[in-house]
Design goal:
Oligomer: single chain
Number of domains: 1
Strand content: 5-15%
Mean pLDDT: 81
Distance between the termini: 31 Å
Largest sheet: 2 strands, antiparallel
Length: 105
């Protein structure tokens, strides 16, 4: 896929390599964006690249396909849903992640 920007470039990760949650979190303004609509967020950022590890980059919409919740009241609620979807969808690339799948993470 041709990405709208390099996930490791200035626009994508502020000059430093960031992964998964960190890249998604940078797209949210905690003061302005809540309640946050999943559909509107994916409409705006769905094609943006999210680096999973040093070799794998996926579109934000691929991660959000695993999120059924339609609206998030605050950043913590969104962050938990994203983490759960990343683990369940095989986008969590950290050792021991399988211990959290299906949990309250």
């Amino acid at each position: 896929m041709d990405w709208p920007h390099d996930p490791d470039g200035e626009e994508g990760s502020e000059g430093m390599r960031k992964y998964g949650h960190a890249v998604i979190a940078k797209k949210v303004d905690e003061e302005e964006d809540f309640p946050l609509s999943r559909e509107e967020f994916v409409d705006e950022y769905g094609d943006d690249p999210i680096r999973i590890n040093h070799e794998r980059v996926v579109a934000l919409r691929d991660i959000f396909e695993g999120i059924e919740q339609e609206e998030f009241a605050d950043f913590v609620e969104l962050h938990r849903a994203v983490g759960k979807a990343m683990r369940a969808g095989g986008f969590w690339d950290y050792e021991g992640a399988e211990a959290f799948v299906g949990g309250d993470a």
